[in-house]
Amino acid sequence: MSTHLAQDESRLLVPPPARHPADPAAGAGPDAGAADGRSGRDDRLDDRLEGLRIVPARHPGRWVATAAVAVLLAMVVSSLVTNDRWEWGVVAQYLTWPSVVEGAWATVRLTAVAAVVGFALGTVLALMRLSRSPLLRSVSWAYTWVFRSVPLLLQLLLWYNLAYLYPHLSLGVPFGPEYLWFDTLSVVDKFWAAILGLGLSQAAYSAEIVRAGILSVDQGQHEAAASLGLPRRRQVSRIILPQAMRTIVPTAVNEVIGLLKGTSIVYVLAYGELFYIVSVIYGRNGRVVPLLLVASIWYLVLTTLITVVQYYVERHYAKGALRTLPPTPLQRARWTVQVAGARFTGRDVPPGVPPAYAARARVGVLTRTSRTVAPTAGERA
Amino acid sequence: MSAATSAAVDRLADATGRVELHDVHKAYGTLEVLRGVSLTLEPGSVTVVLGPSGSGKSTLLRVVNHLEKVDRGFVAVDGELVGYRRRGRTLRELTERDVLRQRTRIGFVFQSFNLFPHLTAVENVVEAPVAAQGRPRAEVEAEARELLARVGLADKADARPRQLSGGQQQRVAIARALALRPSVLLFDEPTSALDPELVGEVLDVMKDVARTGTTLLVVTHEIGFAREVADTVVLLDRGVVVEQGPPSQVLDAPRHERTRAFLQKVL
């Protein structure tokens, strides 16, 4: 404030009336002092400021809110511990029960295969939808329409009853001779009925996600790829899709997590995935709540793993959009430990730690001129 | 820079690169953007197209590259029709694959650079010669680094576009276009998106390219560049060529009232 005033005054034709240092109109207080310091007496000011301790601002409202939430949290934890109806002993016993682990593994398999089928078919459907052929466009549209309209539960039961509609499947020339015959029941067992149901309905949703991603890529990128004469497939696979992935990944992971939990619907086919196994066990021993907890914990763990993968996939596809990638949690943890170590031992921060982190080794002391602080390894190099 | 003997760029001198436009018409909906443009660009010549905005300059370039299909008339590069194949008395529209093959002989430099942001500078340059022309990757990459050195960016070869300034990005884009060894290079207002102090470095690279014998067709507002480098200056207004000739004539002694009016506003 005062510095602005000083600059303005310097441009005035008529000099302002001289102000006595003690004049209250000149503005007493730290602001005015700072302005004075900047206009020629830098050294003395720095001497005065160097080494002063910085005290963080206080936030009483935040403290109250924090305390309230802490109490609520303590209540939840204590009820989890003291209420023995949770039967944590039973939970612990069944968490690693062989058939439960097998069920969790079956859930992972279902999710993985259905996600691959869903997104592969979904990408094809999205490209069909953006194609110039009206038939391909309509078929893709109709597919999405049908598979998004029929409830997943119904679709699963329909696929499971495929053998009723078509007792035999065959490979051959359309409307011509057939070469290979299969018994439908032997091919479409419970697992494949579940995959068909989950994967095909997933494809309908994935198609829209992939299409949205492709539409989000700048038109100039399509033109640049075309003007370089890149083959069409290469344009899509090398230029458009990698950029579309930035939009696709967050929504796609949402879908995969939905799919992971959606596999529990497959219990209607009596397929041995996590939820079916758990329901069989509590049907036998009556320990319903602890076993539901066991399943919840497994779903939580699996979702966490997917989320971790998501973080790294997103980071990978951000490379075209960000100047520098944000550090991974591992990098952040390592730097924090190194900085804390440096503060504790008083040694230099190791090289390779970015300046924003290295600066934290000196938190608490004003180091504007950095004269009192030993140069870090980076600065010396 | 002229001392550099880049194999990639020197070979361009052998290329031909005659461009003929004959009575080209193009409309977007009911809006007629080009209304009968005829131009001939001699091999190795530099042609600068001037004109007010909305006069059809960009469309003219996009038509040469077949990013836009003409409604009437034809465009030919080295006697080969762009976008069509002649069979006796019929003209067959080319499939996309053939159009893409044709485009590798016609480089395009965009106003907004359009580098691929997820690829490094050298990957941007390498992509098309490998994927579109099927040349061996190692050979192309060596050449790409040479090209980047030629546009003064040897040390930025492994940076991504977001890490480069506008002028640097545009120079990478020029290197990317040159890597296909085109006989014709189209520039669509290559310096319009740049800060004034970055314009010079891009124009210098363009002057260097002009000396290699590639046919250049440049839409720009840089009158100085036109005066210094162009063989022909074309003034386009409302979709027709108002005046064309050597810069000394069009810029200094324009014959048409509309040319005079335009130059007065620009200079």
Description:
The complex is a heterodimer of chains A (381) and B (267). With 381 residues, chain A is mostly helical. Chain A has 2 domains: 88-320, MetI-like (MetI-like fold); 329-371, no CATH class. Chain A contains 18 helices and 2 strands. Chain A has a two-stranded antiparallel ribbon with strand order 1-2. In chain A, a hairpin with a 5-residue loop joins strand 1 (168-172) and strand 2. In chain A, helix 7 crosses helix 11. Mean pLDDT of chain A is 82; it is low at 1-41 and 366-381. With 267 residues, chain B is an alpha/beta fold. Chain B has one domain (7-117, 183-266): Rossmann fold, CATH 3.40.50.300. Helices cover 36% and strands 25% of the residues of chain B. Chain B contains 10 helices and 12 strands. Chain B has helices at residues 7-10, 57-64, 96-103, 121-131, 137-150, 166-178, 196-210, 223-229, 247-252, 257-266; strands at 19-28, 31-41, 46-50, 72-77, 80-81, 84-87, 90-93, 106-109, 184-188, 215-219, 232-237, 240-245. A 6-stranded mixed β-sheet of chain B has the order 8-9-10-3-11-12, with helices on both faces. In chain B, strand 11 (232-237) and strand 12 (240-245) form a beta hairpin. The longest helix of chain B has 15 residues, at 196-210. Classes of the chains: A mainly alpha (381), B alpha/beta (267). The A-B interface holds A 218, 220-221, 223-232, 234, 238-239, 242-243, 317, 319-323 and B 65, 67, 96-97, 100-104, 106-108, 110, 112, 114-119, 127-128, 131-133, 160-163, 176-177, 180. Chain B: This is Polar amino acid transport system ATP-binding protein. Chain B: Keywords: ATP-binding, Nucleotide-binding, Transport. Chain B: Residues 19-263 form the ABC transporter domain.
